[in-house]
Write a structure and sequence with these properties.
Blueprint: H1 3-17, H2 45-54, H3 58-67, E1 75-79, E2 83-86, H4 94-100, E3 104-108, E4 121-125, H5 139-148, E5 152-155, H6 162-175, H7 179-189, H8 197-212
Parallel strand pairs: 2-5, 3-4, 3-5
Antiparallel strand pairs: 1-2
Helix pairs in contact: 5-6, 6-7, 6-8
Domain Tyrosine specific protein phosphatases: 133-190
Protein name: protein-tyrosine-phosphatase
GO cellular component, one term: cytoplasm
Amino acid sequence: MPHNNLICILLQFFSLKHLSTCEVCFVSDADPQLIVEDFPSGVCKLCHSVLGYIEKHLPELKNFKLKKGFYKPQIDCIIEDKLYLGNFHGARNRDLLDKHGITHVVVAGHHMKEFDKEKYTYKLLDYADSAEQNIVSTFQEVIDFIDNGEKVLVHCFAGVSRSASLVIAYIMKNMKLSYNQAYAYVKERRDKIRPNNGFVKQLQIYEQNLKDQKVIQE
């Protein structure tokens, strides 16, 4: 199996299974008793148990994650002074949060935690980045949270699939756009978005629901 394929599989496996502060998977809490030279911020027990297997691929793994922006804090403006889309690291970068004046945060990820509950108002959604994950049933509550908030950041791990789908749903209803139009609008402002196939199907169902409600014109 080519190294890049192996790395992609490992990253997908890790990101689907957990999520928080482990430097390998960024999912589970790092165990302070596990010291690994290549990962000074710590690793969780599960990742520590498989590090021997992936050790020879660590350089490729690190380079892949750097190229894909796994470590870079990112927050992109979708609607000026209102709606922002970003990744896990952006949602934990106080300077970046303050730069955009973020007041409310939607966290769309499995086992993800609040960064600062005292300063920001949070909505937690226990989403897996899986085609089988039901997200359409939560669209309206997310839309209400965004409408009632001030400057709202929506994030998952990479800011590519889960959080992007929620932002697209908001744009569809708020701007009365079709899925394709809303997708293009968001992608123009955050180029790396790519909802998984299951989320796309749910967004298309949501589009039809909005048409049935006369929110979007046929």
